[in-house]
Amino acid sequence: MKVMTWYSDIPQTNEEMIATQVAGRGVNDMFVLEAMRKVDRALFVPPDLRDQAYVDGPLPVGYGQTISQPYVVGLMTQALCPSSTDRVLEVGSGTGYQTAILAQLVKEVWSLEIVPELADLARRRLEALGLRNVRILVRDGWQGLPEEAPFDKIIVTAAPERVPEALLEQLEVGGIMVVPVGEDVQELLQITHVEPGHYVHRKLGPVRFVPMVHRDLPL
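-> structure tokens emitted (219 positions)
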């Protein structure tokens, strides 16, 4: 998401951040909020930005990527309607913050990251937290992960200019995808696969994410 460079009134704890920025702005799923309480955002930001870990905004994490605004993480997770039996595909591991929250809520997470250095960083952080139901792969997210499809849920944490067809094809009937779509300011969409080949789109509001990178990588 777009990086802001100055903040005031930064919460001092992860709990305060969730109370004021996530629950305080309408995210009310008790399981999502509890998962966010278990994952300290400060563990997923660069060391030189730890004093800004709980800001109400995204932060740069290197390689042209950001860690998303806490409220947007809560909103997207809630819109995904996660279940303990779900197999989830995440496109864009980043530093692993969203991944760690999902791992608290679902059966397994397959997470794709196009930047090898970030993928390695996310793996190490998730292993340190004892999360064993996550697999992080260095892949081009536009192609998804067909060998493990279909997925009950798909979440995309960077913005494609259009919804990748491959991801739609890998979404189970009855499944949900949450994805920001567009250029500059995007529309956050909740897409439900209601019957084979038929999808219902629900607009959740404007957001601003970094573009979804698309380049050839060895599989």
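Residues 50 and 98 are 17 Å apart (CA to CA).
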